[in-house]
Design goal:
With 245 residues, the protein is mainly alpha-helical. The protein folds into two domains: 19-81, Arc Repressor Mutant, subunit A (Orthogonal Bundle); 86-243, Up-down Bundle (Four Helix Bundle (Hemerythrin (Met), subunit A)). It contains eleven helices and three strands; from the N terminus they run H-E-H-H-E-E-H-H-H-H-H-H-H-H. It starts with 18 loop residues before the first helix and ends with a helix. Residues 5-10 have low confidence and may be disordered.
Length: 245
């Protein structure tokens, strides 16, 4: 097993604002790239040195990643990477999809057509082609953020934010055909949002995020980051029934 290493001289430097969040993203990306594997020890001092920050934001980032299920800690043994498999990824995207569909159900039930058109236009921006992975991640995140601001209560937004680092890191592994597959589902979702019908928009939102998870799993299996065998079935049927899709 390996630990995360590096030196202060060679590592990237982070801006001081929102440092914990940047560290969180950095570690999550290493997990989804396979650089850090299940059981690997995460060395707080090594990360702090590599990124040029103190131990405090590193510990805060690891605590957030533990809540997301990506790392675990044991008394006196420090942080280690949790097992990552297809079932974990499917569940993360689909749980997020359940919460996101609730926000969409609320906004389509309350917003006027002008507001729905505004939100849909933000979604349209993520449908351009060709598009780089970085741009697609940024544009699709902007769409989700606007939907959650418009339709989510403070508590719901807090719950949705709890998936941020793992879903962002997972989403950044896809490209090419994977992006096109997610865009196809997103296009149907944006169209359903424009109708203002919660019974169309909420399930379409769930299906987009479910599809995103499926694409991430396929990509990581192809890259050898996770195994194609031995993973429990995704919980999609149960979650689909919860949103009526």
């Amino acid at each position: 097993m390996t630990s995360l290493g590096g030196t202060a001289a060679s590592g990237p430097r982070l801006a001081r604002d929102r440092v914990s969040r940047d560290v969180e993203d950095f570690i999550a990306r290493r997990i989804f790239s396979g650089t850090l594997a299940a059981g690997d020890r995460i060395d707080l001092d090594a990360i702090a040195g590599e990124l040029g920050v103190s131990r405090i934001p590193v510990r805060e980032a690891l605590a957030a990643l533990e809540r997301e299920g990506l790392v675990s800690t044991e008394f006196y043994r420090g942080f280690r990477v949790s097992p990552l498999d297809a079932a974990v990824i499917h569940e993360s995207f689909e749980l997020y999809g359940l919460l996101a569909s609730l926000a969409v159900r609320q906004v389509t039930g309350a917003a006027d057509q002008a507001e729905l058109d505004r939100l849909a236009a933000v979604g349209d921006a993520a449908l351009v082609s060709p598009v780089s992975n970085a741009d697609f991640s940024r544009l699709s995140y902007a769409y989700r953020r606007e939907l959650h601001k418009a339709g989510g209560s403070r508590r719901l937004r807090h719950l949705l934010a709890g998936f941020r680092a793992s879903l962002s890191a997972a989403g950044q592994v896809i490209d090419g055909a994977g992006i096109a597959a997610v865009q196809e589902a997103l296009r149907a979702e944006v169209g359903a949002l424009r109708t203002g019908d919660p019974d169309l928009a909420a399930p379409a939102t769930f299906q987009t995020l479910r599809r995103n998870g499926q694409v991430v799993v396929t990509t990581l299996v192809a890259r050898g980051v996770i195994s194609a065998d031995g993973s429990p079935a995704a919980p999609g049927d149960v979650f689909s029934r919860a949103v009526g899709s």
